[in-house]
């Protein structure tokens, strides 16, 4: 059985094993207390996206359906590990450069040497074999990261490996 992470939100979020939709924000405090009383623990509360996430025993997840204004609890569907290899030649990076107006920066003579830039993105998977070297302190290329969605520092490893279910070698990415 084990413990699984859930997220409670007014919005649909797609990274955790249980989705809880359409809960009244005024009931969030009492729901948090109820989850902790039944053995779950709060992970983070985000005012930015008006959501909370918890680690909770799987057998208790379906009981959330009966709690106050929770209208739906849905089990997370895992991706198949039988993924076809990634063809890197199919990726087109030029479109991204145009979207970010990189050409305008290059026209000003800024080509990347000793230039500090900031990127707001969905995040970097520093556990992925292709990126894990970037998190090393001696690399000194990434000065700071922050996860605006959950408030976590991105270099902290979670006690449960709930986010990284894909075997990257089998996915053909490594």
Radius of gyration: 20 Å
Largest sheet: 5 strands, mixed
**Uncertain runs:** 1-22, 154-174
Order of helices and strands: EEHEEHEHHH
Apparent shape: elongated
Q: What is the number of domains?
A: 2
- Secondary-structure-based class equals alpha+beta
Fraction of helical residues: 10-25%
Biggest β-sheet: strands ordered side by side in the sheet: 3-4-1-2-5
Rounded average pLDDT: 60
- Beta-strand percentage? 15-25%
User: What's the tally of helices?
Assistant: 5
- Termini, distance in Å? 30 Å
User: How many extended strands?
Assistant: 5
What does this structure look like?
This protein has 174 residues and is of the alpha+beta class. The chain has 2 domains: 3-75, Alpha-Beta Plaits, CATH 3.30.70.80; 81-174, no CATH class. The protein has helices at 28-37, 58-61, 94-99, 102-107, 168-171, and strands spanning 3-9, 18-21, 41-46, 51-57, 72-75. A 5-stranded mixed sheet has the order 3-4-1-2-5. The model is unreliable at 1-22 and 154-174 (pLDDT under 50).
